[in-house]
Sequence to fold (143 residues):
Amino acid sequence: MDLKKLTGKLTTIVAAGAMVMSICGGVVWANNCKDEYAHMSFDESAGEYLDYTSSRLKEDTSCGYIKGIESSNGYSFNATLVGVDETGYCEDFELIDYDVNPGDEIWMYNYVKENGYNYAAVKCESNTGDDYSVGFLWSPDSV
Fold:
């Protein structure tokens, strides 16, 4: 085999390897993506229109995930992924709100990890003045 053919084959192999690495290098492998069930009750007339889930480890910059499971009266609620640290729930960065209905599956864009928080929680707010409850699945990271 002459040197020109060998050089051409090596160049092809190196280019193919670089392409594979660039494709695989762009994939975000999420870690804490196990769904956890949460249940919230709202009663705005009693001042109970806001609640938070417990905090969970946020291991990467991927989207969070939420799936609406149930809602009394079929009402939606507002959900936002917020940061959590030793002082409590942190909302000192750009927050993105989502309207969640039963059956909705939403990948929640967020800036929790980018702002230095290692834990996340879902901030849940009532969308109506009525007394109602909601149930949903959520995870701080997604696949």
Q: What stands out?
A: The first strand starts at residue 36 and ends at 43.
